[in-house]
Specification:
24% helix; 378 residues
Length: 378
Amino acid sequence: MNYRRINLKLEHPLAFWSAFPDPSERFFWYDSQKQTLIITSQRLQAVQEQDIANYPYVFYSQSFFDEVNDELWQDFGNEIVAFKHYFVQTPTESYVLSCDSLPEITDEKGSKLSNSYTEEASDYQEWQSLYQKLQENIAQGKTIKIVASRQIKFTSEQTFKIEPILERLIENNPSAFIFAYHKAGKTFLGASPEILVQKEGNHILSYALAGTFPRSLAHGDTRLLQDPKNLHEHQIVVQKIKDKMLEKSPHVQIGETGIMALKNVFHLRTLLSTVDASNSLIDWGKHLHPTPALGGQPSKAALDFLRANEKHERGLYAAPLGLIDAQGDGTLIVAIRSALFDGKTCYAYAGCGIVAASDCQAEFDETKIKLKTILEAL
C-alpha cells in the first residue's frame, strides 16, 4: 500500500482525532516512555499477520476471553486493522502518512469542560458474594490467586466528550500508555501502566506488575517492598512469566523488583526480558496472555472461575492491545485503568489480585482507588 508523507505540525494533536467524526474508526496511542503520539483514522481493512509489513502501523487487539458474549463488546477485539491515515508526533518530527484524501484539520484546542455523571448503586454486596466464592475456590486448592474485577456504570445527561478525557489522562498519568479505540459509536480508553510484551528487533520485554498500596499511605513504597502478602502475589506473576518465556527462549533475564509510582497507587514491578528471533509480537502476546496479574494461577482454573462467576463481560478490559509497525516491532499493553464509553453511559473497570491472605474490604477499596484513573479524567 502506498502512503504519502505530509509534514503536519499540530499544537493541539487531538484536532486530528476530532477531524474524523462518526462513523470513522480511530485509535489513539501515546507512549509516555518514547514521548510518541500516534493517531490512526478511517479503517482501510482488516489484515492478516503476514501482511503487516505493507502498512506503517496496524492496530492489534484480542479480547480477554476467546469468546465475547455480551452485545456491549460485540464490535471489539480479535483483529488486526490497517488505517488510511496515521498522524505521528515524536520529540523531533510531526507528520501524516496517508493513502486517501484528508479532511481539513483545524488546529484548535478543544473544550476541557468536565463531564458530570452519576454512579449507579454500590455493588459491594455483589463483590462480597464473589469474594466468598473466590476464597472457597482457593481454600479447596483449585487456585492460589484469582484477579477479580468490577464493572461500574456511570451515566451523564450529556454525551461524554472523549477529547478532554484523553487530555486529562495524559496530564494525570505521565508513566502510562494512554489509549483510545473508537468503533461503532463507542470508545474504549484508558491509561495502562502495564506492558504485556514489547518487541524491538530480537529483544522481548514483559512487566510483572502486581502488588499494590495506595499512594496516600505514609512510606507506602517502602512498606510495599516489605509486605508479605503483596510480595507473594507479585512472585506468582514473576514466576509464571518466566516459565512462559522459557517455553520460547532458553534464557530469561529477571530485573530487580522495584516500585512503580503512579498518581494514586504504588505497584511492585519486575522487568523480565529475553532474546528471540523466531516469534512475532502477536505470537508472544497470545503466549503470555493472561498473566497471573490479570487472570490468576493456575490460569485455566482461574479463568474458568471468572467466566462462571463474574457477572460482567470483560471484553477488551485487561486484554492485550497496541500498535505494531511495518518491521513487526511494537508494544502490547494490557488494557487496565480503562472504561468503555457509549453515548451518555460509561462502564469503568477495575480489578485486584486476591490470594488466601487477602481482605474483602481492602481489596474492594483497592479497586476504588484504581477507578480514580478514569474518574479524575472525567
